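Quality-control log, excerpt.
Job 1 of 2 completed; input and output follow.
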Amino acid sequence: MKKYYIHSSSFIDNNVSIGSGTKIWHFCHIQSGVSIGKNCVLGQNINISNNVKIGNGVKIQNNVSVYEGVELEDYVFLGPSCVFTNDLTPRAKYPKGTADYKHTLVRTGATIGANATIVCGNTIGKWALIGAGAVVTSDVPDYALILGVPAKQSGWVCECGQVLEKNLKCSCGRNYQIGKNGLEEILCSSEI
Protein backbone atom coordinates (compact mmCIF):
# COMPACT_ATOMS: atom_id res chain seq x y z
CA MET A 1 0.00 0.00 0.00
CA LYS A 2 1.36 3.42 -1.02
CA LYS A 3 1.81 5.93 1.77
CA TYR A 4 1.45 8.92 -0.56
CA TYR A 5 -1.28 10.22 -2.89
CA ILE A 6 -1.02 10.75 -6.65
CA HIS A 7 -4.01 12.03 -8.60
CA SER A 8 -4.95 9.79 -11.54
CA SER A 9 -4.28 12.59 -14.06
CA SER A 10 -0.62 12.87 -13.04
CA PHE A 11 2.25 10.93 -14.60
CA ILE A 12 5.20 9.61 -12.61
CA ASP A 13 8.24 8.32 -14.54
CA ASN A 14 10.32 5.33 -13.45
CA ASN A 15 13.07 5.74 -10.85
CA VAL A 16 11.24 8.32 -8.71
CA SER A 17 11.30 8.36 -4.89
CA ILE A 18 8.26 9.82 -3.09
CA GLY A 19 8.12 10.16 0.70
CA SER A 20 5.19 9.18 2.88
CA GLY A 21 2.42 11.71 3.37
CA THR A 22 3.20 13.51 0.09
CA LYS A 23 0.29 14.57 -2.14
CA ILE A 24 0.63 15.13 -5.90
CA TRP A 25 -2.48 16.70 -7.42
CA HIS A 26 -3.92 17.11 -10.95
CA PHE A 27 -1.90 17.15 -14.19
CA CYS A 28 1.59 16.83 -12.69
CA HIS A 29 4.62 15.21 -14.33
CA ILE A 30 7.43 13.89 -12.16
CA GLN A 31 10.43 12.88 -14.29
CA SER A 32 13.04 10.19 -13.79
CA GLY A 33 15.58 10.46 -10.98
CA VAL A 34 13.47 12.81 -8.85
CA SER A 35 13.52 12.50 -5.08
CA ILE A 36 10.59 14.03 -3.17
CA GLY A 37 10.61 14.02 0.63
CA LYS A 38 7.88 13.33 3.16
CA ASN A 39 4.72 15.41 3.64
CA CYS A 40 5.11 17.54 0.51
CA VAL A 41 2.20 19.03 -1.45
CA LEU A 42 2.44 19.55 -5.20
CA GLY A 43 -0.51 21.52 -6.60
CA GLN A 44 -2.03 21.35 -10.06
CA ASN A 45 0.08 21.42 -13.25
CA ILE A 46 3.53 20.92 -11.69
CA ASN A 47 6.51 19.67 -13.67
CA ILE A 48 9.51 18.31 -11.76
CA SER A 49 12.38 17.69 -14.18
CA ASN A 50 14.94 14.90 -14.11
CA ASN A 51 17.11 14.44 -11.03
CA VAL A 52 15.60 17.26 -8.96
CA LYS A 53 15.87 16.85 -5.18
CA ILE A 54 13.01 18.06 -2.98
CA GLY A 55 13.20 17.94 0.81
CA ASN A 56 10.51 17.27 3.41
CA GLY A 57 7.47 19.47 3.97
CA VAL A 58 7.82 21.39 0.69
CA LYS A 59 4.73 23.09 -0.78
CA ILE A 60 4.62 23.86 -4.49
CA GLN A 61 1.60 25.84 -5.68
CA ASN A 62 -0.04 25.53 -9.14
CA ASN A 63 1.78 26.01 -12.47
CA VAL A 64 5.40 25.66 -11.35
CA SER A 65 8.20 23.90 -13.23
CA VAL A 66 11.23 22.90 -11.17
CA TYR A 67 13.97 22.30 -13.73
CA GLU A 68 16.98 20.02 -13.53
CA GLY A 69 19.72 21.74 -11.55
CA VAL A 70 17.33 23.10 -8.90
CA GLU A 71 17.41 21.70 -5.36
CA LEU A 72 14.79 22.47 -2.70
CA GLU A 73 15.65 21.85 0.94
CA ASP A 74 13.05 21.19 3.67
CA TYR A 75 9.94 23.41 4.16
CA VAL A 76 10.41 25.48 1.00
CA PHE A 77 7.27 27.23 -0.28
CA LEU A 78 6.94 27.97 -4.01
CA GLY A 79 4.10 30.36 -4.89
CA PRO A 80 1.86 29.97 -7.95
CA SER A 81 3.60 30.29 -11.32
CA CYS A 82 7.04 31.11 -9.92
CA VAL A 83 9.82 30.41 -12.42
CA PHE A 84 13.23 28.74 -12.30
CA THR A 85 15.85 28.71 -15.04
CA ASN A 86 18.83 26.40 -15.49
CA ASP A 87 20.74 27.91 -18.42
CA LEU A 88 21.99 31.50 -18.54
CA THR A 89 22.31 31.63 -22.34
CA PRO A 90 19.90 29.12 -23.91
CA ARG A 91 19.59 28.58 -27.65
CA ALA A 92 17.08 26.23 -29.27
CA LYS A 93 19.54 25.46 -32.09
CA TYR A 94 22.55 24.91 -29.76
CA PRO A 95 21.42 23.00 -26.68
CA LYS A 96 24.15 22.60 -24.07
CA GLY A 97 22.79 19.62 -22.20
CA THR A 98 22.62 18.87 -18.51
CA ALA A 99 26.36 19.15 -17.86
CA ASP A 100 26.15 22.92 -18.36
CA TYR A 101 23.06 23.58 -16.24
CA LYS A 102 23.69 25.98 -13.37
CA HIS A 103 22.82 24.73 -9.89
CA THR A 104 20.21 26.67 -7.91
CA LEU A 105 19.78 25.92 -4.22
CA VAL A 106 16.72 27.00 -2.25
CA ARG A 107 17.61 26.55 1.41
CA THR A 108 15.41 25.42 4.30
CA GLY A 109 12.22 27.36 4.91
CA ALA A 110 12.63 29.86 2.06
CA THR A 111 9.53 31.26 0.34
CA ILE A 112 9.35 32.30 -3.31
CA GLY A 113 6.28 34.39 -4.10
CA ALA A 114 3.84 34.08 -6.98
CA ASN A 115 5.29 34.86 -10.42
CA ALA A 116 8.79 35.47 -9.05
CA THR A 117 11.70 34.46 -11.30
CA ILE A 118 14.87 32.86 -9.96
CA VAL A 119 17.77 33.12 -12.40
CA CYS A 120 19.91 29.99 -12.20
CA GLY A 121 23.23 29.63 -10.43
CA ASN A 122 22.13 31.35 -7.22
CA THR A 123 21.37 30.31 -3.65
CA ILE A 124 18.25 31.47 -1.85
CA GLY A 125 19.17 31.60 1.85
CA LYS A 126 17.29 29.80 4.60
CA TRP A 127 14.00 31.39 5.67
CA ALA A 128 14.41 34.13 3.02
CA LEU A 129 11.24 35.58 1.50
CA ILE A 130 11.14 36.50 -2.19
CA GLY A 131 8.19 38.81 -2.93
CA ALA A 132 5.65 38.17 -5.68
CA GLY A 133 6.93 39.13 -9.13
CA ALA A 134 10.55 39.69 -8.03
CA VAL A 135 13.39 38.79 -10.43
CA VAL A 136 16.31 37.33 -8.46
CA THR A 137 19.69 37.56 -10.23
CA SER A 138 22.11 36.97 -7.31
CA ASP A 139 22.47 35.04 -4.06
CA VAL A 140 19.98 35.89 -1.30
CA PRO A 141 21.11 36.04 2.37
CA ASP A 142 19.43 33.98 5.10
CA TYR A 143 16.20 35.64 6.37
CA ALA A 144 16.35 38.40 3.72
CA LEU A 145 13.20 40.07 2.35
CA ILE A 146 13.72 40.50 -1.40
CA LEU A 147 11.44 42.62 -3.60
CA GLY A 148 11.33 44.19 -7.06
CA VAL A 149 12.73 43.99 -10.57
CA PRO A 150 15.62 43.53 -10.41
CA ALA A 151 15.22 42.16 -6.89
CA LYS A 152 16.87 44.01 -4.03
CA GLN A 153 16.89 43.44 -0.30
CA SER A 154 14.15 45.41 1.41
CA GLY A 155 14.57 44.14 4.97
CA TRP A 156 14.63 41.00 7.08
CA VAL A 157 12.00 38.39 7.97
CA CYS A 158 11.62 36.07 10.93
CA GLU A 159 11.41 32.30 10.56
CA CYS A 160 7.67 32.71 11.29
CA GLY A 161 7.31 35.03 8.27
CA GLN A 162 6.88 38.39 10.04
CA VAL A 163 8.85 41.34 8.67
CA LEU A 164 11.37 42.39 11.34
CA GLU A 165 11.83 45.88 12.75
CA LYS A 166 15.30 47.45 12.91
CA ASN A 167 15.97 45.86 16.31
CA LEU A 168 15.68 42.41 14.63
CA LYS A 169 13.21 41.19 17.26
CA CYS A 170 9.97 39.45 16.33
CA SER A 171 6.65 39.46 18.17
CA CYS A 172 6.84 35.64 18.15
CA GLY A 173 9.79 35.86 20.57
CA ARG A 174 12.67 35.16 18.20
CA ASN A 175 15.66 37.53 18.18
CA TYR A 176 18.31 37.84 15.49
CA GLN A 177 21.72 39.33 14.82
CA ILE A 178 23.66 39.93 11.62
CA GLY A 179 25.86 36.93 10.78
CA LYS A 180 28.13 35.85 7.95
CA ASN A 181 25.30 34.50 5.73
CA GLY A 182 22.57 37.00 6.64
CA LEU A 183 20.74 36.86 9.95
CA GLU A 184 21.37 34.35 12.70
CA GLU A 185 18.88 33.56 15.43
CA ILE A 186 20.08 34.38 18.94
CA LEU A 187 19.30 31.36 21.09
CA CYS A 188 18.73 31.79 24.80
CA SER A 189 21.01 29.76 27.07
CA SER A 190 18.30 27.13 27.73
CA GLU A 191 18.16 26.33 23.97
CA ILE A 192 21.92 25.86 23.51
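Job 2 of 2 completed; input and output follow.
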Amino acid sequence: MLHSFTRNHNDLSTDAGFQFEFFCDCCGNGVKSTFVESATYGQRNKSESFGRVASSIGGLFGGKAGNLGWALERGSDMVASKFSGESPEWRREYEKAFDAAQEEVRPEFKKCPACNAWVCSDCWNEDENLCTTCAPREASYVAQAHSRAMQRNIDEAAETATVWKGNLESQTTICPSCGKPSGKGKFCTNCGASLALNVCPSCGKEVAQGLKFCGYCGSPMEQNNVCPDCGFENEPGMKFCGKCGCKL
Protein backbone atom coordinates (compact mmCIF):
# COMPACT_ATOMS: atom_id res chain seq x y z
CA MET A 1 0.00 0.00 0.00
CA LEU A 2 1.47 3.33 -1.08
CA HIS A 3 1.32 6.17 1.44
CA SER A 4 0.86 9.78 0.39
CA PHE A 5 2.46 12.68 2.24
CA THR A 6 -1.00 14.31 2.27
CA ARG A 7 -3.95 12.63 3.94
CA ASN A 8 -5.81 12.15 0.66
CA HIS A 9 -4.71 11.52 -2.90
CA ASN A 10 -6.26 10.27 -6.13
CA ASP A 11 -4.70 7.76 -8.53
CA LEU A 12 -5.25 8.95 -12.12
CA SER A 13 -2.96 6.32 -13.66
CA THR A 14 -3.98 4.35 -16.76
CA ASP A 15 -2.46 1.50 -18.75
CA ALA A 16 -0.56 4.10 -20.78
CA GLY A 17 1.07 5.93 -17.87
CA PHE A 18 0.98 7.30 -14.36
CA GLN A 19 -0.44 10.45 -12.83
CA PHE A 20 -1.53 11.32 -9.30
CA GLU A 21 -3.42 14.13 -7.57
CA PHE A 22 -2.66 15.20 -4.00
CA PHE A 23 -5.16 17.16 -1.92
CA CYS A 24 -4.72 19.88 0.68
CA ASP A 25 -5.45 18.60 4.19
CA CYS A 26 -7.30 21.82 4.98
CA CYS A 27 -9.44 22.94 2.01
CA GLY A 28 -9.26 19.83 -0.19
CA ASN A 29 -7.90 21.56 -3.29
CA GLY A 30 -5.84 19.20 -5.43
CA VAL A 31 -2.56 19.45 -7.32
CA LYS A 32 -1.83 16.99 -10.16
CA SER A 33 1.56 15.57 -11.02
CA THR A 34 2.90 15.44 -14.57
CA PHE A 35 1.73 12.47 -16.62
CA VAL A 36 4.54 9.90 -17.04
CA GLU A 37 4.29 7.38 -19.88
CA SER A 38 4.65 3.74 -18.87
CA ALA A 39 7.67 1.95 -20.34
CA THR A 40 5.97 -1.40 -19.72
CA TYR A 41 3.00 -0.26 -21.79
CA GLY A 42 5.29 0.69 -24.70
CA GLN A 43 7.10 -2.66 -24.59
CA ARG A 44 3.80 -4.52 -24.57
CA ASN A 45 2.59 -2.68 -27.65
CA LYS A 46 5.80 -3.55 -29.49
CA SER A 47 5.52 -7.22 -28.47
CA GLU A 48 1.90 -7.41 -29.60
CA SER A 49 2.72 -5.79 -32.94
CA PHE A 50 5.67 -8.12 -33.58
CA GLY A 51 3.57 -11.10 -32.53
CA ARG A 52 0.88 -10.27 -35.05
CA VAL A 53 3.48 -9.92 -37.86
CA ALA A 54 5.15 -13.23 -36.99
CA SER A 55 1.79 -14.95 -36.83
CA SER A 56 0.98 -13.71 -40.32
CA ILE A 57 4.30 -15.01 -41.63
CA GLY A 58 3.69 -18.34 -39.95
CA GLY A 59 0.30 -18.57 -41.56
CA LEU A 60 1.84 -18.06 -44.99
CA PHE A 61 4.88 -20.34 -44.72
CA GLY A 62 3.83 -22.78 -41.98
CA GLY A 63 6.33 -24.98 -40.10
CA LYS A 64 8.75 -23.35 -37.74
CA ALA A 65 7.77 -19.83 -38.74
CA GLY A 66 4.20 -20.60 -37.78
CA ASN A 67 5.27 -22.06 -34.46
CA LEU A 68 7.47 -19.00 -33.83
CA GLY A 69 4.58 -16.65 -34.55
CA TRP A 70 2.31 -18.56 -32.19
CA ALA A 71 4.94 -18.48 -29.47
CA LEU A 72 5.54 -14.73 -29.83
CA GLU A 73 1.84 -13.97 -29.88
CA ARG A 74 1.38 -16.21 -26.89
CA GLY A 75 4.20 -14.34 -25.16
CA SER A 76 2.59 -11.00 -25.88
CA ASP A 77 -0.68 -12.26 -24.40
CA MET A 78 1.19 -13.29 -21.28
CA VAL A 79 2.76 -9.81 -21.04
CA ALA A 80 -0.65 -8.22 -21.39
CA SER A 81 -2.03 -10.56 -18.74
CA LYS A 82 0.76 -9.67 -16.35
CA PHE A 83 0.22 -5.97 -17.01
CA SER A 84 -3.49 -6.12 -16.25
CA GLY A 85 -2.68 -8.13 -13.14
CA GLU A 86 0.04 -5.69 -12.05
CA SER A 87 3.20 -7.62 -12.84
CA PRO A 88 6.37 -7.08 -10.76
CA GLU A 89 7.81 -4.87 -13.51
CA TRP A 90 4.69 -2.77 -13.60
CA ARG A 91 4.59 -2.56 -9.79
CA ARG A 92 8.16 -1.28 -9.59
CA GLU A 93 7.44 1.25 -12.31
CA TYR A 94 4.24 2.33 -10.57
CA GLU A 95 5.92 2.82 -7.19
CA LYS A 96 8.76 4.76 -8.78
CA ALA A 97 6.29 7.02 -10.57
CA PHE A 98 4.34 7.54 -7.32
CA ASP A 99 7.50 8.59 -5.44
CA ALA A 100 8.49 10.93 -8.27
CA ALA A 101 5.01 12.47 -8.31
CA GLN A 102 5.21 13.21 -4.58
CA GLU A 103 8.59 14.86 -4.96
CA GLU A 104 7.22 16.96 -7.82
CA VAL A 105 4.09 18.12 -6.02
CA ARG A 106 5.44 18.45 -2.46
CA PRO A 107 6.85 22.00 -2.98
CA GLU A 108 3.28 23.17 -3.66
CA PHE A 109 2.37 22.34 -0.05
CA LYS A 110 3.63 23.37 3.38
CA LYS A 111 3.62 21.21 6.51
CA CYS A 112 2.12 22.80 9.62
CA PRO A 113 4.40 22.20 12.63
CA ALA A 114 1.44 22.36 15.00
CA CYS A 115 -0.92 19.78 13.48
CA ASN A 116 1.39 18.13 10.88
CA ALA A 117 -1.12 18.84 8.12
CA TRP A 118 0.09 19.48 4.55
CA VAL A 119 -1.74 22.52 3.22
CA CYS A 120 -1.75 24.59 0.04
CA SER A 121 -0.69 28.24 -0.15
CA ASP A 122 -4.29 29.41 0.32
CA CYS A 123 -4.42 27.69 3.70
CA TRP A 124 -1.02 28.85 4.97
CA ASN A 125 -0.58 31.81 7.32
CA GLU A 126 2.73 33.34 6.31
CA ASP A 127 2.83 35.66 9.32
CA GLU A 128 2.57 32.82 11.85
CA ASN A 129 4.13 30.00 9.79
CA LEU A 130 1.15 27.82 10.63
CA CYS A 131 -1.88 26.58 8.72
CA THR A 132 -4.98 28.75 8.86
CA THR A 133 -6.75 26.12 10.95
CA CYS A 134 -4.22 26.50 13.76
CA ALA A 135 -3.65 30.22 13.20
CA PRO A 136 -6.42 31.95 11.23
CA ARG A 137 -5.47 35.14 9.42
CA GLU A 138 -6.38 38.17 11.53
CA ALA A 139 -8.44 39.96 8.90
CA SER A 140 -10.40 36.83 8.03
CA TYR A 141 -11.00 35.94 11.67
CA VAL A 142 -12.18 39.48 12.50
CA ALA A 143 -14.57 39.39 9.54
CA GLN A 144 -15.94 36.01 10.62
CA ALA A 145 -16.35 37.18 14.23
CA HIS A 146 -18.13 40.31 13.01
CA SER A 147 -20.46 38.21 10.87
CA ARG A 148 -21.27 35.87 13.78
CA ALA A 149 -21.97 38.82 16.09
CA MET A 150 -24.25 40.39 13.49
CA GLN A 151 -26.19 37.13 13.16
CA ARG A 152 -26.60 36.90 16.94
CA ASN A 153 -27.86 40.50 17.08
CA ILE A 154 -30.35 39.83 14.31
CA ASP A 155 -31.60 36.66 16.02
CA GLU A 156 -31.97 38.45 19.36
CA ALA A 157 -33.85 41.34 17.76
CA ALA A 158 -36.09 38.93 15.88
CA GLU A 159 -37.06 37.20 19.15
CA THR A 160 -38.54 40.42 20.57
CA ALA A 161 -39.85 41.95 17.33
CA THR A 162 -43.59 42.20 16.72
CA VAL A 163 -44.16 41.09 13.17
CA TRP A 164 -47.97 40.73 13.21
CA LYS A 165 -50.72 42.60 15.03
CA GLY A 166 -53.78 40.79 13.75
CA ASN A 167 -56.55 39.25 15.83
CA LEU A 168 -56.21 35.53 16.44
CA GLU A 169 -59.94 35.14 17.10
CA SER A 170 -62.04 33.56 14.37
CA GLN A 171 -65.82 33.98 14.20
CA THR A 172 -68.24 31.93 12.17
CA THR A 173 -71.50 33.49 10.99
CA ILE A 174 -74.53 31.24 11.51
CA CYS A 175 -77.44 31.70 9.15
CA PRO A 176 -80.59 32.72 11.10
CA SER A 177 -82.75 30.78 8.62
CA CYS A 178 -81.06 27.36 8.25
CA GLY A 179 -78.76 27.45 11.30
CA LYS A 180 -75.66 26.41 9.30
CA PRO A 181 -72.35 28.27 8.78
CA SER A 182 -73.19 30.84 6.14
CA GLY A 183 -69.75 31.95 4.91
CA LYS A 184 -68.55 35.56 4.65
CA GLY A 185 -70.86 36.85 1.89
CA LYS A 186 -74.10 38.82 2.06
CA PHE A 187 -76.19 35.71 1.53
CA CYS A 188 -76.08 32.27 3.14
CA THR A 189 -74.10 29.75 1.09
CA ASN A 190 -76.52 26.98 2.09
CA CYS A 191 -80.03 28.43 1.80
CA GLY A 192 -79.48 31.83 0.17
CA ALA A 193 -81.11 33.84 2.96
CA SER A 194 -80.02 37.43 3.39
CA LEU A 195 -77.37 38.05 6.03
CA ALA A 196 -77.95 41.81 6.19
CA LEU A 197 -78.12 43.29 9.71
CA ASN A 198 -81.43 44.44 11.20
CA VAL A 199 -81.86 47.93 12.66
CA CYS A 200 -83.14 48.30 16.20
CA PRO A 201 -86.42 50.24 16.08
CA SER A 202 -85.59 51.98 19.36
CA CYS A 203 -81.89 52.97 19.22
CA GLY A 204 -81.14 52.49 15.53
CA LYS A 205 -78.13 50.23 16.07
CA GLU A 206 -77.44 47.37 13.64
CA VAL A 207 -78.23 43.97 15.12
CA ALA A 208 -77.68 40.52 13.64
CA GLN A 209 -80.66 38.73 12.19
CA GLY A 210 -82.40 36.18 14.38
CA LEU A 211 -82.02 38.18 17.61
CA LYS A 212 -85.29 39.02 19.35
CA PHE A 213 -83.87 41.84 21.48
CA CYS A 214 -81.37 44.58 20.75
CA GLY A 215 -77.97 44.03 22.31
CA TYR A 216 -77.47 47.77 22.85
CA CYS A 217 -80.75 49.00 24.39
CA GLY A 218 -82.62 45.79 25.18
CA SER A 219 -85.71 46.76 23.21
CA PRO A 220 -87.66 44.09 21.33
CA MET A 221 -86.64 43.83 17.71
CA GLU A 222 -90.19 43.05 16.57
CA GLN A 223 -92.43 45.99 17.52
CA ASN A 224 -95.96 46.83 16.39
CA ASN A 225 -95.43 49.96 14.29
CA VAL A 226 -99.10 50.50 13.29
CA CYS A 227 -100.21 54.12 12.87
CA PRO A 228 -102.75 55.04 15.60
CA ASP A 229 -104.59 57.40 13.23
CA CYS A 230 -104.89 55.59 9.90
CA GLY A 231 -103.97 52.05 10.92
CA PHE A 232 -101.15 51.77 8.34
CA GLU A 233 -98.49 49.20 9.33
CA ASN A 234 -95.15 50.93 9.01
CA GLU A 235 -91.71 49.33 8.85
CA PRO A 236 -89.79 48.93 12.08
CA GLY A 237 -87.79 52.00 13.03
CA MET A 238 -90.12 54.51 11.34
CA LYS A 239 -90.90 57.54 13.62
CA PHE A 240 -93.69 58.95 11.49
CA CYS A 241 -96.40 57.16 9.55
CA GLY A 242 -95.54 56.75 5.95
CA LYS A 243 -99.19 57.21 4.90
CA CYS A 244 -100.58 60.08 6.97
CA GLY A 245 -97.49 61.56 8.63
CA CYS A 246 -98.76 60.98 12.12
CA LYS A 247 -96.07 60.61 14.78
CA LEU A 248 -95.63 57.01 15.83
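Post-run check on job 2. The two ends are 112 Å apart (CA to CA).
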